[in-house]
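Help needed: design a sequence for this.
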């Protein structure tokens, strides 16, 4: 049987819903178990963001050329910038034997659903649009214009996220500790690491 390795984990949700916060916690608690798929983006780095760690920061021209060469698993335009998961980003994590975690928006989710990545899909839900705006403003990373665009997109994302069958779990992030516990529990129940994936489900003696 072909060894496919563990199923990747996708976190999706409106900008400001708490994906990065949850992921950071997960990667800190289980550094040997999970590896982050480092996306490409044409947006500029925020203070503290490192090239090759948080994103591969690139230009529109470079990204278009790489997309044409077939280097990406999925790509999307979000808030005026291009984002994408390169095949290499996922491969780099797979090679370490860790479970690959992707933080991508809904157009990307639709594309990976049609691929053979077969990921587990988590939607992180904000308590309300007002609270989302409050958190985004508090993060202080967006211009007023970018913030407005992100909030407009959020409404569509919430609609898609809540449609039955689009995600394996919807995690309401009204309280960070509770949301993280739910994520951990979902992972414990559903995500198999490399050894378990090799053994297969409920291997008999
Ligand atoms: P995303 O990665 O989905 O865009 P972030 O993880 O950056 O969102 O979270 C957006 C902001 O909201 C951050 O400033 C973060 O500290 C804050 N935040 C995340 N979860 C919660 C929560 N449960 N309650 C209050 N603030 C939160
Ligand atoms: P941010 O600019 O806040 O880091 O990310 C904006 C949005 O882009 C978020 O919803 C995030 O999940 C999404 N995103 C980040 N990387 C990728 C990617 O590689 N592909 C897709 N489709 N979305 C991404």
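Sure. Designed sequence:
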């Amino acid at each position: 049987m072909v060894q496919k390795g563990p199923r990747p984990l996708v976190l999706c949700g409106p900008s400001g819903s708490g994906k990065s916060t949850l992921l950071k916690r997960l990667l800190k608690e289980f550094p040997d178990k999970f590896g982050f798929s480092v996306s490409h983006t044409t947006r500029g780095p925020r203070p503290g963001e490192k090239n090759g760690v948080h994103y591969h920061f690139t230009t529109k021209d470079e990204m278009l050329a790489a997309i044409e060469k077939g280097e990406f698993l999925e790509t999307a335009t979000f808030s005026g910038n291009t984002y994408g998961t390169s095949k290499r980003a996922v491969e780099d994590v797979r090679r370490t034997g860790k479970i690959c975690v992707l933080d991508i928006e809904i157009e990307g989710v639709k594309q990976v659903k049609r691929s053979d990545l077969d990921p587990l899909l988590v939607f992180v839900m904000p308590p309300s649009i007002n609270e989302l705006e409050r958190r985004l403003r508090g993060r202080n990373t967006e211009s007023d214009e970018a913030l407005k665009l992100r909030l407009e997109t959020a409404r569509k994302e919430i609609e898609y996220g809540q449609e039955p069958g689009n995600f394996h779990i919807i995690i309401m992030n009204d309280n960070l500790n509770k949301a993280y516990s739910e994520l951990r529990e979902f992972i414990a129940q559903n995500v198999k690491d490399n050894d378990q994936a090799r053994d297969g489900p409920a291997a008999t003696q």
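Strands lie at 9-12, 34-36, 40-41, 56-57, 72-78, 81-86, 99-103, 120-125, 169-172.
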